[in-house]
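Human: Here is a favour to ask of a fellow structure person. Comparing notes only helps if you start from a blank page. Give me a protein, with the fold worked out from its sequence. Please set it down just below, with no commentary around it:

Assistant:
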Amino acid sequence: MPHGLLLLPSPNYLYHIVKVKALPINHLLALPSLLTHSPCIHGGDVWFHSKDRLPIDFSSNINPLGPSPKALKALRRAARYVHLYPDPKATKLRDAIARLHNIPVSSIVVCAGVTEAIYLLAKLFIKPGDLATSVAPTYGEYEAAVLSEGGCFEYVPLSSLELPLDSLIEKSQ
């Protein structure tokens, strides 16, 4: 059986290199259904198509004007903390959101991005065999998250600018 190398982090930012037996990927996955699932593609491959120019990507919902000056200023202020893990409870952010919207802090979940939120929702609500539906085209992570929990996923085509609620409800029953 072939061997591979595994890098294990250790204190002081050093890594231990361990020789391990390579196993077929299906031995490493708890859900074999993930083997047949294609990775989600978000937007186009702007780095390939832009060559040496700074890309402007209209294939996703990224601001083509770049970050605001206020965001860059906040990033520079926060840079001195880059070596630290963030507050795992996002206490200050959750407090600010709660005050702004007059809701309890306990009802706020802060995620590292929408993809994490989608996977958390799937983990909470999808059981093996459950069916989830969404309009198409849409963000591909909805399907991936449902499949990762053993659910099934179906798309309802979006043929106009109106949400096909009747079709979504019909498929969900």
User: Anything to note?
Assistant: The two ends are 48 Å apart (CA to CA). Residues 113-173 form one domain. Residues 37 and 144 are 8 Å apart (CA to CA).
